[in-house]
Specification:
two-stranded antiparallel sheet; binds magnesium ion; alpha+beta; binds adenosine monophosphate; globular
Length: 487
Amino acid sequence: MKALDELTFDNRFARLGDAFSTHVLPEPLDAPRLVVASDAAMALLDLDPAVAETPVFAELFGGHKLWAEAEPRAMVYSGHQFGGYTPQLGDGRGLLLGEVYNQVGEHWDLHLKGAGMTPYSRMGDGRAVLRSSIREFLASEALHALGIPSSRALCVIGSDTPVWREKQERGAMVLRLAHSHIRFGHFEYFYYTKKPEQQAELAEHVLNLHYPECREQPEPYLAMFREIVERNAEMIAKWQAYGFCHGVMNTDNMSILGITFDFGPFAFLDDFDAHFICNHSDHEGRYSFSNQVPIGQWNLSALAQALTPFISVDALKEALGLYLPLYQAHYLDLMRRRLGLTTAEDDDQPLVERLLKLMQNSGVDYTLFFRRLGDESAALAVARLRDDFVDLAGFDAWAEQYKARVARDGDYSQEQRRERMHAVNPLYILRNYLAQNAIAAAESGDYSEVRRLHEALSKPFEEQPGMEQYAQRPPDWGKHLEISCSS
Ligand code: AMP
Ligand code: MG
């Protein structure tokens, strides 16, 4: 275990120089205090969880203090927002404080979000509010616990600093961890500003640091792009399998590591709804739940365009062609497991699709359905779940097919079935109304609810005594909460 002042820095991105980022100091928050910290994320930096409670921790992550070796930088990037190209975005309110190495040699970017104005703030104030910081914290750690690749969150620091959104709120900072903060939009920036040297430097940097195994391939850049395609296909398959809606899949919010990145108006589905749009400002549903799949490919094409100086168009097209089949394979594999199946049959895809259609028409809770399906044998479970469906004849027909499919799958005990299914079907997910309750308490100075919810979500597959309230269907008021995009 390390003390806070024993972190080892090696700021490789900062060394790329001023064409890539700008030195900016964090702007401190008034009366910084710990709202919540993640023990698991602390461990990534070899930090003893107890240090989160010390005053110096809140000072460091509330912008008051800095390690001597930290080199805070705001990164420049651009990106396609809602399909249109914005020539310059960049870190408008976040700073890459530096890169830290842990004992096993992994490095982690420390990124402080809400750290004040930068040259890229445009019309913004450089701040993040407590509400959105808590949402990012809970979501990052919850996705990770579900096995969905994501940036991580070390802590949220609250404050007395007033910040104006639709109303006056309080400023906060969230400390984000990721192996890289490089986005598709970084490559787009250097491509569209016609800076081939920097573009090449960036590509070398990403290849050497994050895809070193691709060096062995005959065409390293192509191998790297292929790997990015594969990782994105897998990540989005997991979003779809677990009902995660990102909400703002602009290319500046897409990580070159294929991790879930930049949390705004995201939501987990309560009732299954393929057409769900979690982002208020997304009037056309560009980023609706089911559109995430084609948008994933659209975003990869935007990245491919920016890589045309390094890779032939034909090769890029071929790599892009891998996306959909890979997505489908990962998705089907996960859905089979969610249904408790251990083998593959040709008709599994329609079996899943028919179930989702029935769920869609009846407003069935997406998470609890799968959890309850594993509680009992297939026959008992479908008999009990039947009441949740409006189209009873349709459900009965599906249930017969499912039971027959389970029977063909193999001969195992109910104990084995439950164990296997509960290991992939969470009991606790970050429902919007749960986040909302925790935020309301935190806004009035009580952080216990955020901490408890975080604890429940950090072991989503394990039934935890005393956490029953997090495993319920949402109340009616909590189902279609309008989540403000302002953050
Ligand atoms: P987002 O939609 O959160 O991914 O943000 C898009 C761009 O706007 C990024 O460049 C952000 O850094 C910037 N941005 C968002 N909110 C603020 C803010 N309050 N102050 C300054 N820049 C911001
Ligand atoms: Mg963003």
